[in-house]
Amino acid sequence: MKRKKINLNLLVGCFVLLFFLVTMVVSFFYTPYDVNAIAVSNKLQAPSSAHWFGTDPFGRDILSRIMAGTQTAFFVGSVVTLIGVVFGTLIGGFAGYVGGWLDEIIMRAIDALMAFPGIILAIMIVAVFGTGTLNTAIALGILATPGIARIARSGFIQNKQLEYVSAAKSIGVHPLKIIFREILPNIYSPLIVAASVAFAIALLAEASLSYLGLGVQPPDPSLGRMLKESQEYLTTSPWFTLAPGITITLLVLGFYMLSNGIRDLTDHRSK
Amino acid sequence: MTETLLKVDDLKKYFPISGGIFGRKVGEVKAVDGVSFILKKGETFGLVGESGCGKSTTGRMLLRLTEPSAGTIEFDETLLTDLSKKQMRKKRRDIQMIFQDPFGSLNPRYTVQQIIEQPLIVHGLGTSKERSRMVEELLETVGLDAYAASRYPHQFSGGQRQRIGIARALAVRPKLIVADEPVSALDVSIQSQVLNLLKELQSEFKLTYVFISHDLGVVRHISDRVGVMYLGRLVEVADSNMLYVSPKHPYTRALLSAVPVPDPKNKSNRIILSGDVPNPAHPPEGCAFHTRCPLAADICRKVRPELITDEQGHAAACHFI
């Protein structure tokens, strides 16, 4: 007697993200106007049938720039999350499973990294390796790693003392397999949540870095920088702020709902 | 036919206690302090004692899940304590363990099929088709339906999960099974079912058990020989009947007197032990039991009694036997 409960989080999250993914894919082939075409005579127009979301101070079409901006958003978010989750899990999992002085050393290094003001560390990394979208993403990925490492570590510490790990050892399972095949699947849920948060923070952090001129460089469209550029015109042209603001909100929300949905789906115990 | 399968000699496990900012070693807990016993093929050796007496640690050391600090374990003419980690992993095929907690010992992410066939995969036995058939057979052997294979552990009751754990232990046809409190987490009615299953399996597969429990009644039911542990040492070892009928060590007598008798008219003389088990980080001088022993004399406070075996094979460590 299985009654399927609708996973609303998953449904809505998937829908929102799918919408933006489609938007992103479309933007590679088609945008209503040229993303970087400047038309000063058209500047700061209110939304109309010609420019659905209006135009910016250079007369560029905001809809076109937002469509293209989702490319940057997904790229930065994915790279950051990927770096954070892969290295965070490896470092945290290793430290947590092995324990002892190795754990001590690794975690103190992680603490040091966390104690550093994030944005300053990001600026430092960008200053060393140069600006640009990829470097921004790598810098933010390094920033996301410690938090995820801690979550992974606590999950591993909790799980390694459970009897199923002893059972796996007593069977003769290789330690690496115990780490990746036995314990890791049991801490997917907190990791997925951490990953979604990392994705959301990455979007916002990219905006801050771009604001400081260290992130995505003009004229590449970035939702974060559009938000910043729109500040001056907040009272006169609110649509300029609203369009990228709502887009970022929806993206973050979509990712959050998706992660909640996945957690409900994968957690057998919560059923 | 009574070949020796397992020979444990002077097994010790000292856990360091670290303190201070640099984690200096400030002492050690003598969890297991010189345990020796011999187990013959097909026998069941019961290990009883209070919590914290080192019986579980002893059991884990037999599989080297906990590395012994000193002492040797000889299993089937191989010195387990000399094997490398890799060799030990291979050897684990012959020694399996049944765990206490039927909820924690099965990985919640795996189906029963995956759980039971895991030891087969690790030791490279059978093709995937053969393994499925073996899992089905194993499930039937332990009294579960074959369709259980596709389910997850959380869909079963404690007793059923313990049966799954037993099936997993049986999968590679081990020679020795270390059962660490296998029934203490189960309801009494289920306990006897699982115990009888273990007994049936023993005669069917010619298994040898090390059966760890704090429940004297359970141990009597299943064991051929029983060892009583106190503060990391064996204080008495004897054939099950001998131990229960004529216990020698005062600790054993006190434990046995605490077993309830289902007869309201039977007024047994219970020996009540006062105080707690001493801290194993600072065990008492002499006989470890002297702080609570009704017979304690001066000699007990100074000289630690050796485990002395009489002609009937009944061993006890006490000055007054």
Write the layout of secondary structure elements.
The complex is a heterodimer of chains A (271) and B (321).
Chain A: H1 8-29, H2 62-98, H3 100-115, H4 118-129, H5 133-160, H6 163-171, H7 175-183, H8 188-211, H9 223-230, H10 238-266
Helix pairs in contact in A: 1-2, 1-10, 2-3, 2-5, 2-8, 3-5, 4-5, 5-8, 6-7, 8-9, 8-10, 9-10
Chain B: E1 4-19, E2 24-40, E3 44-48, H1 55-62, E4 70-75, E5 78-79, H2 85-91, E6 95-98, H3 112-122, H4 128-141, H5 158-170, E7 176-180, H6 188-205, E8 208-213, H7 216-222, E9 225-230, E10 233-239, H8 240-245, H9 250-257, H10 298-302, E11 308-309, E12 315-316
Give the helix tally of chain B: 10
Strand content of chain B: 15-25%
Q: N-to-C SSE series of chain B?
A: EEEHEEHEHHHEHEHEEHHHEE
The spatial strand order of the largest sheet of chain B comes to 6-7-8-3-9-10-12-11
Largest interface: A-B, 18 and 30 residues
Rg of chain B computed from alpha carbons, rounded to a whole number of angstroms:
21 Å
* Mean pLDDT figure of chain A: 83
Q: What's the story with the biggest beta sheet of chain B?
A: 8 strands, mixed
How many angstroms separate the termini of chain B? 32 Å
What fraction, in percent, of the residue positions of chain A are helical?
Answer: over 70%
Strand percentage of chain A = under 5%
* Largest beta-sheet details of chain A: none
Question: What is the total tally of β strands of chain A?
Answer: 0
Give the integer mean of the pLDDT values of chain B: 87
Integer-rounded radius of gyration of chain A: 22 Å
- Secondary-structure element string of chain A: HHHHHHHHHH
Shape of chain B: globular
- Regarding quaternary structure, what we see is heterodimer
Low-confidence stretches of chain B: none
Distance between the termini of chain A: 14 Å
Briefly note the structural class of the backbone of chain A: mainly alpha
Task: Jot down its keywords.
heterodimer; A: 271 residues; mainly alpha; B: 321 residues; alpha/beta; 10 helices; 24% strand
